[in-house]
Every structure is written in structure tokens, then in C-alpha cells.
Amino acid sequence: MRVLVTGGAGFIGSHITDALLDAGHEVVVVDSLHPAAHHAQPEGLDPRADHRWHSVTDQDALTDAVRGCDAVCHQAAMVGLGVDFGDVVDYVTENDLGTAALLRVLHDQRFHGRIVIAGSMVVYGEGRYRCGTHGVVRPAPRDPALLARGIFDPLCPRCGGELASESVPEDAAVDPRNVYAATKLHQEHLGVAYAIEHPDVTVTALRYHNVYGPRMPRNTPYAGVASIFRSALERGEAPKVFEDGAQRRDFVHVRDVARANVLALTAPTAVPGPVNIASGHPHTVLDAATALTAAFGRPELAPEVVGTWRAGDVRHVVASTERAREQLGFVAEVDFAGGMDEFATAPLRAS
Question: What distance in Å separates the CA atoms of residue 212 and residue 222, rounded to the nearest whole number?
Fold first, then answer.
């Protein structure tokens, strides 16, 4: 099978490229080497892939890359919460327009095959919560006044009582609460619209949770929290943990994410729609900082809980992994302790 991987030189995309090549597939990579993720062309890219340094908005270059491809794995995107709302045009251009441009080329080329889109858990906004009185509820946007007082957990919007966090299934209501989240949801919606008009094409959106592992970019506000902590340790600084550190996430290793993409592209039966890709074993952000610090071997750099908060952040979001297991046959293999031990000394990329 010949597969086009957009963003295939990036953190996740390069691992997907490696996994596809190791499985015997041909890979064409299209990557713009966006400066938010790349300081220069990354080292260590697999020479077996056909690397082409273009943006997915370059219609002529993309048309040439698509020819002869049996499947498309769309990873190209700006990621992370960013700096502030001033990033909005860049996010919409790279994520929304980039996806639209790709789908336009596939339409023009009468593409027949599977499309896998890199989705994200950020589309859920706050995760799933249950009130002891009112059942499953959707918390209101976070109140800056409560956050400033150190009250970080959401409250029931009906009675003001405490809520219990639960795992989020794919059919949960979406509620994007920052620019990045809005663009990731729009990517999915564009994929759905494409699939409706092209019934011979299956579009799968893999909603990644907190991906970490070798080749993450260092020292950038667009990187994931694990990379931010690791970069601090490399600078000889204690990782700074926002809020009280008790916010829960599902940290999933990049090799597992790559394997999930290969499964989505090659499973005997295509799986349309969204699929959570996560470990199924949530941990707090402070857990991650503590595990990394211990594995890094600098106990004097104990994580510092600073209480800082950002309006676009969410408190708890962890995934139900049932659909991934039942329909893709995906179960994460890298456990949290082993993955963090490896990541503490794994190579990062300059950015």
C-alpha cells in the first residue's frame, strides 16, 4: 500500500511513517517544516520515505504527491494551546485551510481509499462529569474568579455541588474551549462532509490524548506538557506545574499512537468517525512531572506547583478506550512508568 502522510516529519507523523515503512508500505511524506515545530529539517528521518517539503496548501505539489496513493494519514497541523488568541489566524490557516486544501485535491484526483485524520481530545472541552443529584452534566466555562481563589474543579451548573470526573466516550457532546480545539473539531467536520459526498471513502478521526515520547520538540509553548517539563529539567530548572497539579490526563506513548494509525489504515474493516486513542490509565499532571523528575535523576529539581491557570485550559479529560479496543483492536502497550522512564532521557528535537 502507498500512503501519503502529511506532517510526516513531525513528532507523531515521523513515528507513523516509521511504523508504516516497517510494515512494508510505501510512504510519501508532505511536510512544510513549520517553524512552530521545526528549527530545521529534523535529523534521523527514515530515508525509505519519499520526503517532500511543501505545505498541504500547495495544490500542485500535493496533487503530485497524492497520485498513486491508496490511503492518506493527515497529521499536518499546528498543535497545543499556543500563546494567546493572537495565534488564531495561524491555527485556522494551518489546520482548517490545510485540511480543506487536502480534501479538495483528493476530490479532484477522485481518490478512493481510507483517510485517517489526527484528531484530539481537546474537542471534548471539559471531560465528562457526574453530579450525585443531577447525573451527567456539562460544566459552564471556567470562572476566572473561582480560579483566582484556587478553586479549580468545576461545579455542577444546576446545584453548585461537587462533580465526579468520568471517562469520555466518543459520542459525548463536543465543547471546544480554545482556538486549537475549535480547529481540530472543524477538521473532523470537514472529513465528515467529504465522506458524505464520497461514500467509497472512509474517514477516521483518531482523537489523541496527551501524546509523549521521543522526538517531541523542546522549548516551545506549542509542545505538550510532558515536553515542557522535560525541557525545564534539561535547563536545570524544576518543572512548573499549573493549578494544583491534580488535573487528570491520559498520557499515551507516541509508539502506541503510531500503531493505532497503522491499524486504522489497514484493519480488515474500516472504522468511520471518531476513535479515542489513549492508554486508558489516567494520571495527574503532577504525576507526570514527578515521574519525569525521578527518572531524570535530579531529585533536587522537585516539581513546583505554582497555581497559575489559563482560561483556555480544562480541568479533567480522560478517555473511554472501548471503541478503539473493539473496532480497531487497539490497546496501548507502553505503560506510564516505563514510558516516562524512557522519555526522561529520550532525544528531543530543537525548535
Answer: 13
